[in-house]
Amino acid sequence: MDGGNHSVVSEFLLLGLTSSWEIQILLFLFFTIFYVASILGNLLIVLAIISDHHLHSPMYFLLANLSCIDTSVASIATPKMIYDLFRKHKVISLKGCITQMFFIHTVGGTEMVLLIVMAYDRYTAICKPLHYLTIMSPRMCICLLAAAWSIGLLHSVVQLAFVVNLPFCGTNKMDSFYCDFPRFIKLACVDTYGLEFLVMANSGFISMGTFFILIVSYICILVTVRKHSSGGLAKALSTLSAHITVVVFFFGPCIIVYVWPFPTLPVDKFLAIFDAIITPFMNPIIYTLRNKEMKVVMRGLLLKAVCFWKSPFMHRLRNSD
User: Fold this and answer.
1) Non-local CB neighbours of 243 within 8 Å, separated by 6+ positions
2) Which of 58, 87, 169, 231 could make a disulfide contact with 136, Cβ separation 3.0–4.6 Å?
3) Greater pLDDT, 306 or 25
4) Are 172 and 9 contacting, i.e. CB atoms less than 8 angstroms apart?
């Protein structure tokens, strides 16, 4: 490619995860199963919360929104990654790469704030139960959700504003299966030290700071419960354990990837897979297995689905085909 003062790269070549055909087939099966399971699991949570009036509370409203966000997280990069497993040249356009980064960080930033909101919701429910419904009113929930999306959008736009006009006049090979700021910046043919620090400050420090805020908030909840009632400590710990697990799964890979933003180790790709596929898959399992109300409602939905499938209407429809 010819050098110049302006960008001459119109697309990037994604090197993917492996060049072995046998391993790619295994990865295709693995990713497809996890992707479909995460989408169905999160949509089932949303449907269960919408369909049952017993779940129309602030906690479940926030959980439904977390499931919607996890569905988005799983759908940004995973479908293309699965499709690319059978392509010899795994390419993505410059505009497509920028678009992918925009949605990754908008949705990711929103989920960070939403997890803080969910921690605040649990703090209010456990430590101020008499004022819970007044504090976490429907209007407050909507305002907090709007704030989460606004902060996520701002988080993404601030980073894009500094990288969208970078010149690319060298190699277009990106050692990844999706676009993200660290590897995208590394391909620019200008000094990017300042931008590397910006990414580390914006994504890395925010991830680490949010993680510590959440852990400290959970500790404060447990300490408060222990002071008032030693018997309620076990119940509070059981309630918070699901939230803590989700926080560790979500923030662990983010902190490692962005605090050390330009790693050369294969673990970087593993963490990216974990964040893009495994975490959205694990969240429905974590919340449903630890929540009796959710299990009852979801079991009822599955039973209705089976009954509908065995109904005379569906029987006649299948016979007509």
Assistant:
1) 115, 118, 119, 122, 218
2) 58
3) 25
4) yes
Structure pTM?
A: 0.85
Smallest CA-to-CA distance from 254 within 277, 275, 282, 279 is with 275
Token pair of 292 as six digits = 């009796």
Pair type for strands 173-174 and 91-93: unpaired
Q: What would the DSSP string read from start to end of 113-129?
A: HHHHHHHHHHHHHHH-G
CB atoms within 10 A of CB 8: 15
pLDDT(21) > 60? yes
**What amino acid occupies position 138?**
P
Mapped onto helix, strand or coil, the DSSP state of residue 47 is helix
Planar angle of CA 14, 152, 79, nearest 5 degrees: 35
Mean pLDDT is lowest, of 5-19, 105-119, 205-219, for 5-19
DSSP bridge pairs for 174: 14
In this structure, what token pair is assigned to residue 46? 């949303």
Q: List own/partner pairs for 231-237 with CB under 8 A and 24 or more apart.
A: 232/126, 236/126
Residue 93, phi then psi, degrees to nearest 5: -70, 160
Encode pLDDT of 164-174 as tens digits: 888 887 778 88
Is residue 174 within a helix (H) or strand (E), and if so which, with residue range? strand 173-174
Which secondary structure element, helix H or strand E, spans residue 267, and what is its range? helix 267-273
Residue 317 has pLDDT above 80, yes or no: no
d(C-alpha 251, C-alpha 266), whole Å: 19
- Name the helix (H) or strand (E) containing 194: helix 193-199
DSSP secondary structure of 200-230: IIIIIIHHHHHHHHHHHHHHHHHHHHHHH-S
